[in-house]
Amino acid sequence: MIIGERGGKMGDKILVAIDESSFSESLVEYALSSWYRYDLEKIVFIHVVEGRVPTRAGWNINFKEIEPSLEEELLKKFHDMIGSTVEKMKLREIPYELILKVGEPSSTIVEVSEKGDFDLIVIGHKGLSNIERFFIGSVAANVVRHAPCSVHVYRPKD
Questions:
Q1: What is the pLDDT of residues 122-147, one digit of tens each?
Q2: Quick one: pLDDT band at residue 106, thresholds 50, 70, 90?
Q3: Which CATH number characterizes residue 122's domain?
């Protein structure tokens, strides 16, 4: 078990930020392996749907709820990704929670981590293209800057 600065156990409850990129598959594998390595109490995956969409005039059309058909599609996609990773790794069934939220990704991840009293946030170092990251900033960097707990930025070996 990891010992945190507060002297208590750390990593009992982790929040893992995933997106629809292929990179998230290796992030899910890493998070699931942490379940065994650190004997975690709870693992929660979160995906944040950007609450705005691109238009000809730029980014706008804010929305606050996920359309039911999109929510169903995303839930299936992420449950399938996690389930197939569990099978691929030949792990026993791992209890987990999957949260879908609408909003700005970094602030939403930080808000959920505060409300859920998580010990650790695990986030990938990339997900968006370099052009998107240039214009809207790095979600991982913003989470590191504002998180109420430790943040592990996952970077797989290439």
A1: 998 865 555 544 444 588 889 999 99
A2: very high
A3: 3.40.50.620
Q: List the domain range (segments joined by +) for residue 78.
A: 10-105+117-133+144-154
CA 39 vs. chain centroid, Å, equals 19
Distances (CA, A) of 30 to 18, 35, 86, 148, 154: 12, 9, 11, 22, 8
pTM for this entry: 0.80
Using DSSP's 3-state secondary structure scheme, residue 127 falls into coil
Residue 1 lies in a domain: no
Sequence-distant (≥ 6) Cβ neighbours of residue 70 within 8 angstroms: 49
7-22: average pLDDT: 76
Instruction: Tell me whether residue 41 is in a domain.
Output: yes
Residue 84 lies inside a defined structural domain of this protein? yes
